[in-house]
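sorry to bug you again but im stuck and you know this stuff better than me. what follows is a protein written twice so to speak, once as letters and once as C-alpha cells for the fold. id like you to explain what the C-alpha cell line says about the fold, in plain words if possible. anything you notice is useful, everything is just below.
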Amino acid sequence: MNRRIAGWLLLFAGAVALLGGRGTFGLLAEIAWLGGLAVVVVVAWRVLARRGPLGLRIVVHAALTMTAAATTRVLSGPAFLGFAALAFWLVYLGEPGRRGRIGWAIIPAGVLSTLATVAAVDALRPRWDSGSVFLLGMTATFTAIYLLPRERGGGRWALWPALAWGVLTVLANDPSGVFTRWWLPLVMIGVGVAVLGWTRRRG
C-alpha cells in the first residue's frame, strides 16, 4: 500500500514539474503551491513512516523537493533549501507514536532554514542585508537548542555558540561602532571577572 502511495506521489510530482517548468506559476501562486506541497510532504512522510523503510521516505521526499524547486522560478532556491530543512525537522520530530526527539537534527534543520530564509530575502528583497538575516538565524538556532529541555534535544553546550553568534550579530549591525568601543570591552571584563571568581571558588 505504501509503495502504491509513493508511486502516485512520484507521478503527481512529475506531472506538476512539467507544468511548472513551462512557467505556469506566478509569485503568489508559487507561495500557495509551496505551502500546499509542504503539507503533502509532511503527510507522505508520516504515512510512509508507519511501515515503509527509511530509504523510501528519502526517495519520495527528494522527489518532492526537486518538484518544489523545478515548479518555481522566483522561489526555486528557497524552496529547495526549505524542503531540505523540512526533512531534518521531520527527523527531529521522530517516528509517529514514539516519544523523544532526535536532537542532532536541530542543527542542520536550523542551518538549512536560515539559508532558505537568506535565499528568499535575496530573491524577494535584493537590497536587504541578507548577512544579518543569516547571523540572526544562526543565533536563533543555537539559542533554541540551549533553551530546549534535554529530552527534547536541548543541550547546555549551545550557550557558547549562541553567545558567539549573538555577538557577531550585534557587531554586524553596529555601524556607529558604539558597541565595539564601549560595551564589548565592558562585557569581556565582566565575563573575565566572573570566570576568575568561579575558578577561585572551585580551587
About this structure: The first helix runs from residue 2 to 21. Helices lie at 2-21, 27-51, 54-70, 76-93, 106-124, 130-147, 159-172, 178-202.
